[in-house]
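ok trying again, last paste got cut off:
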Amino acid sequence: MADIVPTEVTAITIHTETNESVVPQTQLNEENAIPLNSSSGGRASGKPWKYQKVATVRSNLPENVKSKWEERMEKTKKEQAMKKLQNELKEEKDAEKKRRREITLERKRAAEERRRLEEDKAKMGAKKAARLRRRAGRSKKINH
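nice, full thing came through this time. structure:
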């Protein structure tokens, strides 16, 4: 099997192959070098019909993607600050609603307690009066 020796000569690599010996590097010089084909846009593939690649035009992208990173971050910070303020205001509003609801419920509870105590008081008053009448020797049957 023949040996393959890569040798470098001015921007290209030449692989030389012989049956018996390796060509010394000193024999390869400018005369033996294969010249590079020059092409517009760097295409040396032999496919001149291919379009030259260019940067993508991003005219149809949204504004926030086209803008600079710092501007986007600044806008995001403003939006976050606004959202935070809105949340604080909403929480204050909810707390006020909750406070008013608690006051209303407390008033209802107090009114219900007063009504219940009055009923108990009336009931106890009737029982006490009946007890006093019995002590006096009168019964319900006589009183009615």
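cool. The two ends are 139 Å apart (CA to CA). DSSP finds three helices and two strands in the chain.
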